[in-house]
Amino acid sequence: MTALENREPAAGSAADTLLRVDDLHVSFKGRGRARKVRAVNGVSFELGRSETVGLVGESGSGKSTVGRAIMRLIPADSGRVQLDGRELLSLGRSELRAARKDVQMVFQDPYSSMNPAMVVADVIGEPLDVQAGMGRSERNTRVAELLEAVGLSQRHIERYPYEFSGGQRQRIAIARALANHPKVVILDEAVSALDVSTQNQIINLLEDLQAETGVSMLFIAHDLAVVRHIARRTVVIYLGQVMEVGPSERIFEHPAHPYAEALLSAVPVPNPEIQRRRERVVLRGEPPDPTNLPLGCPFVTRCRYAMDVCADTMPELTPVDGGGLVACHLQTAGPNLAGRSLDALGVEAEPIVPPTR
Q: What residues have CB less than 8 Å from 206, skipping those under 6 apart?
């Protein structure tokens, strides 16, 4: 049984599903005689119409690889990626080129994804030339509309990428992604390189654009505070495997997987007094070798709740109270949480000791 066959009934499933990723596997060849690195190992999730889903995990978790595999920028070993019921992984080159009109991507560094020799009119207008076959006059009119939509003006149309700030360049990248009215936009760490005030501006812009256009968004990030604000549902992955998925508010308030608990405990609180009093889960141990993952849960080497069964048996995704699924033996063995969050264990986390002078 796949994870999707065992999924929770929530928005983004059944008739509401726009993008469906099922049992996706991606690997890379190791150096020398090393075995393959399994970057994505059976990831499954759904994205509904006009919905934002957050994909979170620490660096090296495979979240960016998932986004690139959906876009076919890197090949997948196996699995299914369906957009509006159309299988993307089996499309030929010409069919894929046409399908990319419906699914676009915004990268972390907008400058590296732009041709520095092109002015903004050409940067944003290129997909209009390729996909829509617009004439120059019609294209420039559309580019001006897109610039206005992302908070820039028509006077920017003949400027080069280096003439803009990082936040402005990200707005240009978003305008380019929206040029052909896509159904899905994948945002890969799209605000992580920006300062906090600019992050807020871009997040508010994305929410406004979604309300106006109905575009669905897969928001890939390691900044959980941003994900909580923008994403209705969140998928937590570790070493290429889904650990927990469900409503963002439930996961952020009552995580059911130890990895999600640890990630959330590391999110800083703006109030210094509260921050000093907070309890923090400190992960010990080392991640396993990605070329030789454990038979069981990949988090077993760092989990403070680890049991014998965790080392040799991979837990199945099971339903959680409040919505969602979690892959953890605490739900079915040992304390047997049976759908409850980790709060039910009553285990105190390690307190943060403020530095002394």
A: 52, 174, 187, 217, 230
How long a stretch of residues is the chain?
357
Q: What angle do CA 118, 124, 129 make, to 5 degrees?
A: 95
The pLDDT tens digits of the residues spanning 277-289 come to 666 777 788 888 8
Question: For residues 209 and 214, what is the distance between their CA atoms, to the nearest angstrom?
Answer: 8
Q: What type of residue sits at position 344?
A: A
- Which tokens hold the place of 278? 């907070």
Residue 122 has a CB neighbour count (10 Å cut-off) of: 18
- Residue whose entry in the numeric block shows the structure tokens 């390690």: 350
Identity (one letter) of the amino acid at 280? R
The residues that bridge with 47 in the sheet, in sequence order, are 19
Fill in the DSSP letter of residue 241: E
Instruction: Give the span between the Cα atoms of 316 and 328, in whole angstroms.
Output: 7
User: How far, in Å, are 99, 176, 190, 251 from residue 243 at the CA level?
Assistant: 30, 33, 23, 11
Whether pTM exceeds 0.70: yes
Q: How far apart are CA 285 and CA 268, in angstroms?
A: 23
Q: Which amino acid, 131?
A: Q
Task: Give the pLDDT confidence of 63-89 residue by residue, as tens digits.
Answer: 999 999 999 999 999 999 999 989 999
